[in-house]
Amino acid sequence: MPHHTFKVSECIPERTKHAVVKGPGEDLSMALPLGYLNTIPGSISERGCAYCGAKHVIGTPMKDVIHISHGPVGCTYDTWQTKRYISDNDNFQLKNTFATDMKEKHIVFGAEKLLKQNIVEAFKAFPAIKRMTIYQTCASALIGDDIDAIAAEVMEAMPDVDIFVCNSPGFGGPSQSGGHHKINIAWINQKVGTVEPEITSDYVINYVGEYNIQGDQEVMQDYFKRMGIQILSTFTGNGSYDDLRAMHKAQLNVLECARSAEYICNELRVRYGIPRLDIDGFGFEPLSASLRKIGLFFGIEDRAEAIIKEETERWKPELDWYKERLKGKRVCLWPGGSKLWHWANAIHEEMGLQVVSVYTKFGHQGDMEKGIARCEEGALAIDDPNELEGLEAMEKLKPDIIFTGKRPGEVAKKVRVPYLNAHAYHNGPYKGYEGWVRFARDIYNAIYSPIYHLSGLDISKDEFDTDVEFATQARISDAGLKEEVRTSPSLRQYTGGFDSVTKLRERDYPYMKKQPEGVQA
């Protein structure tokens, strides 16, 4: 296992042990970088904080809740509307965010009065919403505001409302994963078991670790309902606050994202005896295996097989079409969390992509173990990389595409590497059989997009002055485009060859049919 030292991080020797290259025949004990440790000073990490992990990842997808941050306004702004956690109540939780907006005077004199005022004002402003989550931040935690006491006072004065308090200051863990743990445990301690649900099926589950990114949850819900399964609650995508208080009555916890929500599953098993079953909604084979496991648990395997047969026959030919065109393309799989291992093997086996690098910003060693085990030899595995390390890795590995979040994705675009948003998707949902084909389509469109070829043309050395007549410049650009088409098979595919370039130009600018004076054909 050769450790990998980035040139940009040679001044931080501790970073060497946070990147490794997976060697031939190595087991996981030899191919693991250090992970889930405090960020090394000077490395300029792109991690989120524990507060972000609690509010942004776990809490905010709850749909019928006023989510209020007790701290400076910048904290809640950073966690607002940056993922597509859609809901069926007109996306209330995406359109509205709330903060007490603590100032310096509140740090000095306390902000409990401010918090109580904000809670009452928020409920009055949105009288149809009777549920609230309060998130603690670094500022309110450091001065010791008693948020629980304020919440109790408000609930006593307003009996029709219910408030959940999540003490999750940003410094509560080495990364946002620390916030996942805090809100999981706080929810089961405070709210689970306080509502009794109506049971309508012989097969009842909690769907845990599912956040309904661009409708992912709705795809999976359709499969469960076709199997006759009642979904008691969804933790927490499009989830109802009161449904999530009734999680203790499920017969099975079906867990999708183990990194963010395994904690509540484990506690439900200990306290209520509810077993946990890990599933995977990405990829034909992993999804089929997951549906079979659920069917086997309830004794309804035939219903699962019927869905698998129908969906595979419908979508597999289309997936195979994309696989032929994506085979051998190089991918940096940099999603940050559980998609590291959800996708690593599936995109290789079912789409033909070669994973040349994996990384995680906030994952634990278990995430790296599963991710590295499922990617190819020679892959570069990185824990908690920064922007400069990402740029250096792209320069070295020459990927055809990267799957990552918006911040590193926008950096990749600047160096003409296409990216797909692994966190919030481009054209999701990506779960389910149709969703997996949709993912393949987005990959194909990104890799073969003409814009990434054209963006490499250097027009700064053009021999003509910039004030030459536009038609002349257009003629020269047209010639350059023809040359690019001649040398690029993918552009020929999109343009139809040389003649179509001229036809398109003449269609858009009819006066160019006549050759400008002084310009040779």
Describe the protein's architecture and organization:
This protein is an alpha/beta fold. It folds into four domains: 7-34 and 315-448, Rossmann fold (3-Layer(aba) Sandwich), CATH 3.40.50.1980; 50-190, Rossmann fold; 204-308, Rossmann fold; 451-521, no CATH class. Helices cover 46% and strands 12% of the residues. The protein has a six-stranded mixed β-sheet, sandwiched between helices. The chain has a four-stranded parallel β-sheet with strand order 3-2-4-5, with helices on both faces. Helix 14 links the parallel strand 10 and strand 11. The N and C termini lie far apart (58 Å). 45% of the residues are buried.
Reconstruct the topology from this structure.
Layout: E1 19-21, H1 50-59, E2 66-70, H2 73-78, H3 92-95, E3 98-99, H4 104-109, H5 112-125, E4 131-136, H6 138-143, H7 147-157, E5 162-166, H8 177-190, E6 204-210, H9 216-226, E7 230-236, H10 241-244, E8 252-255, H11 258-272, E9 276-278, H12 284-298, H13 301-326, E10 330-333, H14 339-351, E11 354-360, H15 365-373, E12 380-383, H16 387-397, E13 401-404, H17 406-414, E14 419-421, H18 432-447, H19 450-454, H20 470-487, H21 489-495, H22 498-508
Parallel strand pairs: 2-3, 2-4, 4-5, 6-7, 6-8, 8-9, 10-11, 10-13, 11-12, 13-14
Antiparallel strand pairs: 1-12
Helix pairs in contact: 1-8, 5-7, 8-11, 12-13, 13-18, 14-15, 20-21, 20-22
Report the CATH C-level class of the largest domain: Alpha Beta
Task: Return residue spans where pLDDT drops below 50 for at least 5 consecutive residues.
Answer: 490-521
Average of the residue pLDDT scores: 88
Would you report the number of β strands? 14
What is the helix fraction of residues, given as a range? 40-55%
What is the name of the CATH superfamily of the largest domain? Nitrogenase molybdenum iron protein domain
